Amino acid sequence: MDLSFPYYLENYIDGNFIGPLSGKFLDVINPATAEVIAQIPDSDERDVDIAVHAAERAFPAWSQLAVEKKFSILNKIADLIDENLEVLANAETNNNGKPLWLSKRMDIPRASDNFRFYATAIMHFASASHSMGKKGINYTLKQPIGIVGCISPWNLPLYLFTWKIAPALAAGNCVIAKPSEVTPLTAFLLGKICHQAGLPNGVLNILQGSGNRTGENIVKHPKVKAISFTGSTRAGAHIASIAAPMFKKLSLELGGKNASIIFEDCNWQKMMEETIRSSFTNQGQICLCSSRILLHRNIYDQFKNEFLEKVKALKVGDPLEPESRQGAIVSKVHFEKVMQCIEIAKAEGGRILCGGHAIKVEGRCENGYFIEPTVIENLPASCKTNQEEIFGPVVTLQSFETEEEAIALANDSTYGLAAIVWTENISVGHRMAAALEAGIIWVNCWLLRDLRTPFGGMKNSGVGREGGWDALQFFTESKNVCIA
Ligand code: NAD
Predict the structure, then answer these.
(1) Residue 417 CA, ligand 1 centroid: distance in Å
(2) Which numbered atom of ligand 1 lies nearest the CA of 287?
(3) Which of 290, 339, 358, 403 could form an S-S bond across to 278 if both were Cys, CB 3.0 to 4.6 Å?
(4) What is the extent of the structural domain holding 321?
(5) pTM of the model
(6) Considering 10, 92, 253, 466, which one is annotated as catalytic?
(7) How far is CA 37 from CA 20, 27, 85, 192, in A?
(8) Pair (291, 312) in one structural domain
(9) Does the annotation mark 253 as catalytic?
């Protein structure tokens, strides 16, 4: 199939690729070169309305289609994603700045996994019945909601876009989906793939555009009955303020400030390798990345020396080069934000142990947005650097003496997305897992994912859980039927 993309990308509405009614477009930039590589529609309320009408027309047939048929179409989408791995991975890397090997190994395979997982999950989705003996019986109908909105961020573009769309479609909903305006390419290509896979027109509509125009008009539309959003806490709060008075169902996956808690007795080598990965994969732009490394006092110096040596060896460079461990920061705006965070850390008294500077990569990437992996110490838990999300290749080191102190430090955050614990003592692992205020706890691993598990955060990291049955519960209405 032809997965090339034109300079002017279009919306995918009712099975057609069409431009925005306003005629307004936004630049799409390759952050590794700073070049404009395409333009996307900045869709407004009229485009949203056309998409909603298409979804409305498609809903009766799609919601009633047998699960076996839904399975075949969603599974076909997964197969086509796999078949087009190279093209999709190149598009992701050229738009996001992440190393190509990472797009190939993580982002695109996970996108097909998401479709395959929910293609099969819907075949096994069952509902409860509650017997009242001779008086009667209740059973629960799990019905699709109708039209739902899925809005995703730029850090894992196709991975997170499909993580929402696949369960929404599997549950029988019609979807209005919007990728980030910063990384729209693979979402555009997904429209082509869905079309080729035989997804009926109007079942999935992909609208391109900015958050405050396109995104907000999706959230505001009275016929869009649920919103699944992943992005910043700031935008999540704003979306909630619009959606709550309209009584829309809301799933919010927001920011994080995750702690890695490292005890003396850990498996040192594994902890070291994984902590490098959890700190800097995707240039630190994963909501699950560790940003605060908490070390037992007795291993602080040993960890610092070895960690710094390994961080300094991470090659930052052209994302297309296989040796590059770190690619470009996603955009100029985000690059400036991360650089400003480093300046704030210095002003707060932070000691920059390594990194702290922008990097000029020679050749084709000389204008790109690259930052050295940065490690900072000597900052109190309460400072901005240790409290606010940076979402870049920047981590801080702090020390603790007791388990209680480690828990207090880790929980000293308005966020509660993930926490990582390194210990060979199973009892410590269990106690920490129970005490840490985060929706996802990894003990002796990081980003080890089973798609059946609940995924999401506490506190300012969000509301609701994605993954497994949770996503299918979210995208369905429960209706109790009581029969005497
Ligand atoms: P963002 O909030 O700026 O944008 C996310 C998406 O929401 C984009 O598609 C954007 O266009 C849209 N949007 C923005 N304002 C909107 C509005 N008013 N109404 C409707 N839509 C709107 O976030 P980002 O900068 O793209 O992504 C980075 C953030 O995402 C970080 O805070 C990160 O922690 C978070 N994130 C969270 C998870 C998670 O699972 N918890 C996963 C990945 C990223």
Answers:
(1) 15
(2) 34
(3) 290
(4) 258-451
(5) 0.98
(6) 253
(7) 19, 8, 20, 19
(8) yes
(9) yes
Tell me the CA–centroid distance for residue 151 and ligand 1, in Å: 8
Q: Does residue 237 sit within a domain?
A: yes
**456 lies in some domain:** no
Q: Are residues 291 and 410 in the same domain?
A: yes
18 is a domain residue: yes
Angle between helices 85-96 and 157-170 (to 10 degrees): 120
In the numeric block, which tokens belong to residue 335? 């690059």
Ligand 1, from 26, 95, 110, 155: best to mutate by most atoms within 8 Å of Cβ?
155
For the Cβ of 42 lying below 6 angstroms from any atom of ligand 1, the answer is no
CATH code assigned at 363: 3.40.309.10
Q: How far is the CA of 41 from the centre of ligand 1 (A)?
A: 19
Residue nearest to ligand 1 atom 36, measured at CA:
231
Domain assignment present for 45: yes
To the query of whether residue 181 is one of the catalytic residues in this protein, the response is no
CATH number for the domain harbouring residue 470: 3.40.605.10
Residue 478 alpha carbon to ligand 1 centre in Å:
28
